[in-house]
Amino acid sequence: MSKGSPVGGAQRGPERRPVLKIILLGDSGVGKTSLMRQFVSGKFESRYKATIGADFFTHEEIIDGRPVNLQIWDTAGQERFQSLGSAFYRGADACMIVFDITSNESFSHITTWLQEFTLQAGQKDMVLIGNKADVQERRQVYNRGIQQWCAEQGGDMQYFETSAKQNTHVGAAFRAVATAAYRAKTAKQGGEEPPMMAGSIKSLKKDETPPPARGKDEKKCAC
């Protein structure tokens, strides 16, 4: 018997790591590629070529003490590529919907992206990301509108305000959705009820224009 071999059976191979497929959605130019590359490689480039169809990177993350492979898909935001979506959405475990805080237009499209993902992949864990927080002087989207949108989704959408350039809250956003998706997936495999993702909206900085006062009859958002 060779040294180190288990008694009474063949040596067991390494345990297969769980894989989570996470998709980034949002209009072209909101910073999906920058966010993905910042999280995976810790690098930021001021110019990227527009993503054609989809691209993905694999990143290892420790979740609940276990190594998990994250397969992060960056889909093109141009409408002409949306017809390719079904193949890219297939098997998705989570979604990150990204808009640009300096673009009201990109924010106005997030409902369409959410509906497209739900149609293709079903109800899965999601986070909302407002990117480009490093250019507050050009800000067009404020907390009140974000809170209202989250409330319309049932109040369970977690929101992160990020800067891919300055690496602000990028890792936290990816880890939040990955952890929620991993726990939901393992709970489903074990026949348990998956836990709800909870979080709070990130407050504006002191030098930002505050949102209008909220009326008493407005719903609070747990996003």
UniProtKB/TrEMBL annotation:
Domain of life assignment: Eukaryota
GO MF annotation list: GTP binding; GTPase activity
Gene Ontology biological process: protein transport; regulation of immune system process
InterPro entries: P-loop_NTPase (IPR027417), Small_GTP-bd (IPR005225), Small_GTPase (IPR001806)
KW Protein transport (keyword) present: yes
The entry's keywords: GTP-binding, Lipoprotein, Nucleotide-binding, Prenylation, Protein transport, Transport
Compositionally biased tracts (Basic and acidic residues): 204-223
PROSITE patterns: RAB, RAS, RHO
Keyword Protein transport: yes
Region entry Disordered, spans: 185-223
One cellular component term from this protein's GO annotations in UniProt: lysosome
Family the entry assigns: Belongs to the small GTPase superfamily. Rab family.
NCBIfam families: small_GTP
UniProt-recorded name of the protein: Ras-related protein Rab-7b
Organism: Bodo saltans
